[in-house]
C-alpha cells in the first residue's frame, strides 16, 4: 500500500473510531510503528490529525467525543498545569466554589493545596480525592459514576447542584467558539454544566487552546456571561484579538506560568 493510500485509510479509521493508538494502526496495516509515525507526521503537517500521548485523534472543528481522562490529562499537560495555577490566583478566603469535572480543572484543584477556608462542591471524585488532604470543606454531588472519567452525572447530580449558590464556578469544556460559545457533545453532561452556570455568581472557563474554534451539539452558555476565560497561547491559528472582543477578561498563560491579560 502506498503511503498516500495508508494516510487516507488512517483518516477513515479515525472518523469511525474517533481515536487510535500507534500500535493499533501499525497492526492494522502490518507495518512498523516508525512507518505509522511518519504517516502521522505528514497528516499533522496538513492539520488533519492531532497527536496525543501514544495515539492520535481526528482534527475537526466539530467535537463528537473525547479521549478518556487518562489520555486527556497527558495532552497539553504543561499548559493545563499553568492554567490551573493562574486560576488559583483568583481564589479568596471564604470563597464557595463549583469545580466542574475535567483534566484542566483537576490541575486547578491541585493548585488549591495551600488555600484554606474554602467550600468546594464538585462532581468529580478525582478532584475530591485531591482536595481531601486540604483544610477546605469538600462536598461531592453524588450521581451516576462515569468510570473512565471519574465524574458523577445525571439527575441526582443536577438536583444536588440546585441547592448551592457558589460565588465562583470553574468550568471545563471540550469546545468553545466565537459564535456558539461553550458547547458539549453529550446532552447529560451538558445539562450538569448548564445547572452549574445557572447557580454560580461568577463563571471562569478553564480550557487549553486546542478547544478553541470547536463546536459541539449541545449549548452550555454564551460567551458574554463568562467573567474570565483562562487558556494557553500555543494555538497559533486562533484569532486572539477576536476572542478578546468577545470576553470580559481573557488570560493566556505560558508553560512557565507567565501570563498576559487582554
From TrEMBL:
GO terms for biological process: lactose metabolic process. One of its GO terms (molecular function) is DNA-binding transcription factor activity. Residues 3-58 form the HTH deoR-type domain. InterPro entries: Carb_Metab_HTH_regulators, DeoR-like_C, DeoR_HTH, NagB/RpiA_transferase-like, WH-like_DNA-bd_sf, WH_DNA-bd_sf. Pfam families: DeoRC, HTH_DeoR. PROSITE patterns: HTH_DEOR_2. Keywords: Lactose metabolism, Transcription, Transcription regulation. It comes from the Bacteria. This is DeoR/GlpR transcriptional regulator. The lineage of its organism: Bacteria, Bacillati, Bacillota, Bacilli, Bacillales.
